Amino acid sequence: MQHPTHTETGTIRVSQVDRSRRIKLTALLDWMQDSAYTHSNLLEIFSTDRLLARNMSWVLMRKCIRIQSLPFLGQTVHLTTFPSALNRYFAFRDFKLQDGEGNPLVLATTSWAVFDLEKRRIIRTPADFIRDFAAPGPPCLKFSRTKITPLQQSDYSEEIFLRDNDLDLNTHVNHSFLGEWSLSCLPREIKQNRRLKELDIIYRSECTLEQSPVISLGSALEKPGNSEEELFYLHALKNPDHSREFSRAISCWQ
Predict the structure, then answer these.
(1) What global pTM score does this model have?
(2) Architecture of domain 6-131
(3) In this predicted model, what pLDDT tens digit does every residue of 52-83 receive, in sequence order?
(4) How far apart are CA 197 and CA 202, in angstroms?
């Protein structure tokens, strides 16, 4: 397989950072998506053109991101991505963000599925994709849990109104917005006084303009090993009557 891995080097720009002068979560997720798109087109078996010719596209199903340290304004970093596995249902892609000395800053693993653009549903991976695939290496990170339990009761909530600009080329809300919205309901003191260490998010349903507004829900998660050093929260994005769940997630704050 040509181009088994793909690395991009970038310097963190002022438009990418927040008040802490470190890269925003949305900017980081967008960069990962861009690098995955670029690499998939270098790999002929995963190319966008090959999928679109069959009226298909890739959709992100799950992402787990573990943060050692977010890069800061002006820092030059290297983002490497590669496909790590493929089966009848999912394609797996991993990411590693490193500083100039090669120290890991962020690790991530993702799962993707093939989406039928006409029927608007997930379908099985085409057999010729599996036949032509060879993994270039083991994953950078493994999902830390097999599933995320549904949120039953919420401690926090926030209403979010959708905009045309939130939609991507598949005409639904881009996953980077869903990641940001999942955390938006948390109290400001959590987001300002603690550092996001891990986010594990499962994307469960298409979110389009017709579903506006979206309700961001969150609750403290009681789990073994909880301490003052690490706090865990369970998240869900739903429509107003809670009949549809767009995503569910667990975040860890240090």
Answers:
(1) 0.91
(2) Roll (3.10)
(3) 889 998 889 999 999 999 999 999 999 999 99
(4) 17
